[in-house]
């Protein structure tokens, strides 16, 4: 039967009615036969590489920067043939209402699970503890709003959260972190606030890149169809990937890295790293290569996954197309069609789902055949898919199974992978079958 949209608590993942005719029936079960459409990463649209693209003339021309891979000597994965029956989904922890993100800090095996309602819960050995943070004041939750993302600083005892305030705007806030992992409420400091014209398409994710800077995924401001054409407007922070140094610098709450692509460009916001995103609900960096993978939620027909390789600049100054394009399909004809980096992977609404959610590259040891594969899912269908790229081009794809209403897929500190389910209020671990 058709799965009702009301099952999904985070409407950032709910942009159209679920098109599946089969009701996702739980973790560990194989999904239906699904046909996906694919496109090569880094390809540009027929209009050519420069026509109509955002101004990226010097000093903003995309080029390799300090987003290069942590290990420049890394070689392509020596992959073993992967089969769906090699993978299973095992419940790791339950009774966590509306889990939307998972993070960890260096040297600590604890998994910190973000709940949309405003709490961060530590999970140790599969057991949830008392919240290390609870937001109550000046906070909104429900629909696409709430506590949406968490990232720990790679070298400082600090954590950063992405949440919706009482006015419905996006706030990035910093907290000092105690030895036990508690985020000290009294230490909160607002790093960045961004006005949201509508209640949807908030993005919500944030992550530190291999360069040590904080990346923030911003949706296009909501409503539908990018009504104010924000995503390709470099004068707006909405519809972009942002990159900042979040540490306070004197009276400044954060600083902008000097090599950000739009620094010094008239009329442009210097925090911008890449443009042309609709709702980058989840993105991640491959811990081995430094490559940036973005699951960008589509409008009404197509879902997409974007890849920005570290060796090519890590996404610096790239245009991912929205709202001139939805995936590889022309969308708003009044938006410039040129200079677009096309998705590495796309699929139509229907049995495959209606709202993509990422996603990370598996770097664990429990399933050798899964190493180097990027995992994604869909909030409507729950289908978990693995992608393998060679030199930035999609080489293989495989449906691994199905989990109810997936909100996020995240790697833990050891590279093993976890799947968060909204409907089940649970975190599943991907294990060898």
Question: In a few lines, what is going on in this structure?
Answer:
With 433 residues, the protein is mainly β. It has strands at 37-38, 87-93, 99-103, 111-115, 119-124, 127-128, 133-134, 147-152, 158-164, 170-176, 189-194, 206-208, 214-217, 240-244, 272-275, 282-285, 292-296, 302-308, 325-326, 329-330, 345-348, 356-361, 374-378, 383-390, 393-402, 406-411, 417-421, 426-432.
Comma- or semicolon-separated keywords:
0% helix, globular, mainly beta, Neuraminidase, 28 strands, 433 residues, disordered N terminus
Structural description of this entry:
The chain is mainly beta and 433 residues long. The chain has one domain: 6 Propeller (Neuraminidase). It is 0% helix and 33% strand. The chain has no helices and 28 strands. It has strands at residues 37-38, 87-93, 99-103, 111-115, 119-124, 127-128, 133-134, 147-152, 158-164, 170-176, 189-194, 206-208, 214-217, 240-244, 272-275, 282-285, 292-296, 302-308, 325-326, 329-330, 345-348, 356-361, 374-378, 383-390, 393-402, 406-411, 417-421, 426-432. The strands form 7 sheets. A 5-stranded antiparallel beta sheet has the order 1-21-18-17-16, with no helix packed on it. Strands 3, 4, 5, 6 and 7 form a 5-stranded antiparallel beta sheet that branches. Strands 2-28-27-26 form a 4-stranded antiparallel beta sheet, with no helix packed on it. Strand 9 and strand 10 form a beta hairpin. It starts with 36 loop residues before the first strand and ends with a strand. The relative contact order is 0.22. Residues 1-33 and 38-76 have low confidence and may be disordered.
């Amino acid at each position: 039967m058709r799965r009702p949209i009301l099952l999904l608590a985070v409407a950032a993942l709910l942009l159209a009615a679920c098109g599946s005719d089969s009701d996702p029936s739980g973790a560990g079960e194989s999904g239906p036969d699904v046909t996906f459409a694919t496109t090569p990463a880094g390809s540009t649209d027929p209009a050519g590489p420069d026509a109509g693209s955002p101004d990226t003339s010097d000093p903003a021309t995309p080029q390799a920067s300090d987003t290069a891979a942590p290990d420049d000597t890394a070689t392509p994965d020596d992959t073993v043939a992967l089969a769906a029956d090699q993978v299973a989904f095992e419940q790791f922890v339950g009774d966590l209402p509306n889990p939307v993100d998972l993070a960890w800090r260096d040297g600590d095996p604890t998994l910190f699970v973000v709940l949309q309602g405003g709490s961060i819960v530590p999970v140790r050995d599969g057991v949830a503890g008392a919240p290390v943070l609870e937001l109550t004041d000046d906070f909104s939750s429900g629909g696409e709003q709430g506590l949406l993302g968490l990232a720990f600083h790679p070298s400082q005892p600090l954590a950063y959260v992405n949440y919706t305030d009482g006015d419905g705007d996006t706030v990035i806030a910093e907290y000092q972190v105690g030895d036990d992992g508690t985020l000290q409420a009294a230490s909160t400091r607002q790093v960045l606030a961004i006005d949201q014209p509508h209640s949807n398409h908030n993005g919500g994710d944030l992550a530190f890149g291999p360069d040590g800077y904080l990346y923030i995924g911003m949706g296009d401001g909501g409503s539908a169809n990018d009504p104010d054409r924000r995503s390709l407007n470099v004068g707006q922070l909405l519809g972009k990937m942002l990159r900042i140094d979040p540490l306070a610098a004197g009276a400044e709450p954060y600083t902008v890295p000097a090599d950000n692509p739009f620094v010094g460009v008239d009329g442009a916001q210097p925090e911008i790293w890449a443009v042309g995103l609709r709702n980058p609900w989840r993105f991640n960096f491959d811990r081995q290569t430094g490559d940036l993978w973005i699951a960008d939620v589509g409008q009404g027909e197509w879902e997409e996954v974007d890849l920005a390789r570290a060796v090519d600049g890590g996404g610096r100054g790239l245009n991912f197309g929205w709202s001139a394009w939805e995936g590889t399909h022309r969308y708003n004809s009044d938006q410039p069609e040129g200079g677009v980096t096309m998705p590495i992977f796309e699929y139509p609404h229907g049995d495959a789902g209606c709202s993509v959610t990422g996603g990370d590259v598996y770097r664990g040891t429990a399933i050798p055949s899964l190493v180097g594969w990027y995992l994604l899912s869909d909030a409507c269908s729950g289908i978990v898919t693995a992608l393998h790229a060679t030199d930035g081009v999609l080489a293989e794809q495989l449906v691994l199974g199905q989990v109810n209403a997936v909100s996020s897929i995240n790697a833990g500190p050891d590279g093993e992978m976890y799947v968060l389910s909204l409907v089940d209020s649970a975190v599943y671990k991907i294990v060898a079958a």
